[in-house]
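[User]
If only I could read backbone structure tokens as easily as an amino acid sequence. I have put the entry right below:
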Amino acid sequence: MTDISRRNLLGAGGLVLAGTSMISGRTQAAGLPEAPSMDKATTQPPLVPTTGVDYQPVVTLNGWTLPWRMRGDWKEFHLVAEPVVREMAPGMKAHLWGYNGQSPGPTIEAVEGDKVRIFVTNKLPEATAVHWHGQTLPNGMDGVAGLNQPGIPPGKTFVYEFILRRSGTFMYHPHSDEMVQMAMGMMGFFVVHPRDPAERRVDRDFVWLLNAYDIEAGSYVPKVNTMLDMNMWCFNSRVWPGIDPMVARQGDKVRMRFGNLTMTNHPIHVHGVDFKVTGTDGGWIPPERQWFEVSADVAVGQMRAIEFNADNLGDWAVHCHKSHHTMNAMGHSVRTYIGVNLKSTAKRIQKIAPGYMPMGSTGMGSMAEMEMPLPENTLPMMTGAGPFGSVEMGGMFTVLKVRPDVAPGDYRDPGWYQHPEGTLAYEWTGEPLPEPTRAPDTPKGRKARETDLRVVDPRKRRTASNPGGHGNH
């Protein structure tokens, strides 16, 4: 095979090349480009360009970049839509739909002005189509089944051809039975680099998609009709502690790009840095109009690019700031028992359910340390071991690791940060601290009583005989 950009990927492991069916579109190319398939859930090395315009390749979090070949002046890619098995974290796998062996599919990288030809082979049990989200292209290449093209029938291959009009951050996803196919994990990133290699150059460029699933405990297939009440909030169909860290050398200029294909917005918060928002769906933001943030909110169907200098050594959390989005599968109908003494209740329940343990009366943090039996293929709600114990997280959470001795192009996990002496929070063991200052109407020494936190049985709650207004609502 000639001019395949996969040279640097073959040594990374997990890459499999597979043939496909004949083309059922108008273009009869001189043989289909091979369709690589990835069977590893770890972050793969960037695909460094060996021909054509130079650029800093992206690193896809727990993913990889799709190799391509040159055929004349066309850059050719081959996507295969198919059922996949995705490990979401060690101990849980999901039966999804995706592209080339994974969900999300591989990242497509090209350069502004490139002519791209993308073959899409359908190995799903129903028709599909691919929409190139954010790209400016001919109407017949936009990928809306029934409106712009026929759906791609199972077993057939269609061809999309267009010129990349501008650089930026884009996505691809189905526009055919969209609710089901996207809920099953069909999506991917599409990065277009500037034609000028010096334009907007960074040292490290990370990309990931925000997606979500509703997968019941013990099951494998998402409930595709769920709209908002998801229980697995993901970076690239992975959840903490299965999301790899992002590694940077101290002083590197770092870019993070993320796109949202869930059904709600996500404020992405990066600890330890002051970043600028440098790109949106509409393209790059001129330097004089960029703004500083510590959290960047990304709405449904949007992309954001942020940039910062990795000057601050350490292990810095990166996560969605919606707290339920940093949990794994959780029972949303579980009642709150904070402040409730469950000892007597637990004894009675244990008579009919041996091994029952009451939870939640002092908060939920202790659950991260418990090793309770779980249904098959189910993750703990909060988990992930850090250097000081459980991180008590899940879902949309990972770590930015900044070190002084990382070589260019090295993305391997350097381990936990070793804090210099005098820079780590510690327990106070000196003289007893004075009584804290309290509000003027609080009696001195006043402490919370057990009755301050209590559950009231709604059947015994006293109500006004005629509340009026909205009292019964």
